[in-house]
Amino acid sequence: MGIDPNFERNLERTGEEHDVDVWGPVEPPEKLGVRGTHVAVDFDICLADGACLEDCPVDVFEWVDTPGHPESDRKANPTDEDQCIDCMLCVDVCPVDAIDVDPGRENRI
Ligand code: SF4
Question: Which residue ranges form the domains of the chain, and what is each CATH number?
């Protein structure tokens, strides 16, 4: 199962890390939640494939270390989500559907 596209309704915003919102529940290192709002990555699904980092035309993503997480020890953080041009490439290339992009989400919170 991929990221919940309605996570902003179903999860609580629990804080901020690496310049983006964190949506809980979060219990590091095993449970890391969803990261970002306009460009959101479910860190508990991300397996560090890296296609989003390679393909994003405006370099929204950067690696952050997540030692001890069961899926992967680094994750694609949407650090520069405010640069996103909504091309949806990252959504299409992610092999585990860990990414959801929605430019209107900020206005619905
Ligand atoms: S939708 Fe396009 S511009 Fe936005 S983060 Fe994904 S690949 Fe980058």
Answer: 7-103 (3.30.70.20)
